[in-house]
C-alpha cells in the first residue's frame, strides 16, 4: 500500500511532521515505513523552502532503503539543465542562467535558494544533480499511476521508447533531445512534468506569487466535464483577466479517465485539500507558500475518496480530512 506525497519544495519540518503522522518512524537519515506500506514522492523536492538539504537527505535515504519511491518534478529537471552546458550556446546552459535576459534572471531567482543552501559548484551540488538523473518521469505501479503534472499514455510511451523510464538514468542524449524545441521528446517531457499549457496572446501573461511572468496558462486537462476555459485554466487569484475572452483550445482532450487512479502534483492548489475525482488527485496544495503538505493513503481502492487524504499544515500536529 502506498502513501503518495505531494510537492515538498524544501519544507523539511512539514515533511517530518507528515511522515510521523502517517506512522513512519525515524531511522538513520530517513524514516522507516509502517509494515506493508511505502511512500511515493511526486517530485519538486527542491527550490523555495528553508530545509532543502534535509528534505533531499530524508527522501534519498528512504529510497535507498526501499522505504520510498520518487519521481522527477520539473524543478529537479530544471536543476539538471541549470548545470548542463548547451552545446548550441557556448558559455550558456540548457536552462539559461548566465545572461541578463528576463529568462536568465527568472531562472537564477527561482533556483537561488537551492544554490545557496547546497553550494553552487560544490561536490554536494554535483552529487544531487547526478541523483536527480536517476529519478524517472513517471511510474505505473499497477494499482496507481504517478506523474508530476499530468499522465499521458503517449508521452509515457515516447519517453520509454527513448530509454527514459523507471530503472533507467536520464542520459545526455535524451536530456539534450528533451530541450530541442518542438521535438517529440520535449513535448512528452513537458506533458508529464509541466502538464498541458495554453500560450497566451501577445501582451498577456500570468504573474505568479514570486513575481515571475508566465506566457502560458496551465490547464487541468483531466476535468472531462469542463466546457469552458475558465473551468480548466489554473489561474492564480487576481490573474483571471488574463484569460477573459479566450476559448478552450481546438481539439482539447476531455476523455474521461479509465484504469488505475492517477496522482499528480505541480499545480499549487489552494484551500481545503480535496481530490479532483474518483480517478485523479492533485496533491500539491502550496506547501512552500503557507499551504499544507498533502498525502493520500492508498489502500488498493479503484476509486479515490477525500477521507484518505492527510496533511501537515505546519511543524505541529498533522490534520486529516
Automatic annotation (TrEMBL):
Residues 95-104 have a biased composition (Basic and acidic residues). Pfam families: Metallophos (PF00149). Residues 88-110 are annotated as: Disordered. Residues 4-84 form the Calcineurin-like phosphoesterase domain. Gene3D superfamilies: 3.60.21.10. InterPro entries: Ap4A_hydrolase, Calcineurin-like_PHP, Metallo-depent_PP-like. This is Calcineurin-like phosphoesterase domain-containing protein. It comes from Bordetella genomosp. 1.
Amino acid at each position: 500500500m502506498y502513501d503518495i506525497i505531494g510537492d515538498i519544495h524544501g519544507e523539511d519540518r512539514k515533511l517530518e511532521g507528515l511522515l510521523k503522522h502517517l506512522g513512519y518512524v525515524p531511522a538513520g537519515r530517513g524514516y522507516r515505513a509502517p509494515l506493508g506500506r511505502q511512500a511515493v514522492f511526486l517530485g519538486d523536492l527542491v527550490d523555495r523552502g528553508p530545509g532543502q538539504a534535509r528534505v533531499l537527505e530524508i527522501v534519498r535515504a528512504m529510497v535507498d532503503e526501499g522505504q520510498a519511491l520518487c519521481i522527477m518534478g520539473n524543478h529537479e529537471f530544471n536543476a539538471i539543465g541549470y548545470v548542463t552546458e548547451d552545446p548550441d550556446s557556448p558559455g550558456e546552459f540548457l536552462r539559461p542562467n548566465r545572461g541578463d535576459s528576463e529568462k536568465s534572471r527568472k531562472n537564477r531567482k527561482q533556483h537561488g535558494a537551492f544554490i545557496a543552501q547546497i553550494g553552487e559548484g560544490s561536490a554536494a551540488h554535483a552529487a544531487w544533480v547526478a541523483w536527480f538523473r536517476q529519478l524517472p518521469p513517471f511510474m505505473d505501479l499497477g494499482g496507481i499511476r504517478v506523474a508530476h503534472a499530468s499522465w499521458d499514455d503517449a508521452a509515457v510511451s515516447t519517453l520509454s521508447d527513448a530509454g527514459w523510464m523507471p530503472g533507467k538514468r536520464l542520459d545526455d542524449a535524451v536530456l539534450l533531445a528533451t530541450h530541442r524545441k518542438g521535438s517529440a521528446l520535449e513535448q512528452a517531457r513537458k506533458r508529464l512534468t509541466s502538464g498541458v499549457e495554453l500560450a497566451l496572446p501577445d501582451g498577456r501573461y500570468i504573474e505568479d506569487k514570486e513575481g515571475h511572468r508566465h506566457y502560458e496558462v496551465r490547464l487541468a486537462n483531466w476535468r472531462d466535464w469542463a466546457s469552458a476555459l475558465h473551468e480548466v485554466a489554473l489561474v492564480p487569484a487576481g490573474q483571471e483577466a488574463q484569460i477573459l475572452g479566450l476559448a478552450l483550445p481546438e481539439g482539447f482532450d476531455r476523455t474521461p479517465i479509465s484504469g488505475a487512479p492517477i496522482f499528480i502534483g505541480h499545480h499549487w492548489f489552494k484551500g481545503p485539500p480535496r481530490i479532483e475525482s474518483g480517478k485523479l488527485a492533485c496533491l500539491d496544495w502550496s506547501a512552500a507558500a503557507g499551504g499544507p503538505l498533502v498525502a493520500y493513503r492508498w489502500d488498493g481502492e479503484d476509486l479515490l475518496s477525500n477521507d484518505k487524504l492527510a496533511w501537515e499544515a505546519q511543524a505541529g500536529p498533522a490534520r486529516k480530512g
